[in-house]
Amino acid sequence: MKFFIDTANLEEIKQAKEMGLIDGVTTNPSLIAKEGSINFKEHIAKICQIVEGDVSVEVTALDVEGMLHQGRDFASISPNVVIKCPLTLDGLKATRILSSEGIKVNVTLCFSPAQAILAAKAGATYISPFIGRLDDISHEGMQLITDIVKIYKNYNFQTQVLAASIRHPRHVVESALAGAHVATIPFKVIKQLVKHPLTDIGLELFLADWGKFSKQANN
To answer: Is 84 in the active site?
Structure first.
């Protein structure tokens, strides 16, 4: 399972890379906006210089021609840029055309298996089901991952399932159990993955015992 970090913050990306835990980055307009007054294309270029894997960059146009213009422009920033298109009819049309031109596409804002089938047929490299947002409205977000993985296996679709809108470590584990190819994870949750109270307690005990041993050995 590949780990992407879901952020546009350069420092978070650098720290995650130093951990050796990330294979790529996903951004979106909301994450970009959090970075304040920046030059958008220069900022994306900086992200691409930090990581070697795919970096998803989302279009903001709503029509096919606008998405194609932005998609081609963003793809020119770096070879590892992946274009994020929304799961709309125009988004699917743009996905088909961009994919045919050799540009990777991540179809985003997926909330149903039917939508995921359309994205795969349009040639998407990634499909991004938003599990946390489904949980927010009392739907079972993880079931969507399970259903899409099964459907894609049934028909040997090459589109990779990218679990998105991850809110906590359990989402990551359940996505892995369901067979998602990628999980895109906020930096906060990446750090939470390593934590377990028994690890902390065990380490304290080991160090306490070592302290006792060292004290006796030096007497």
So the answer is: yes
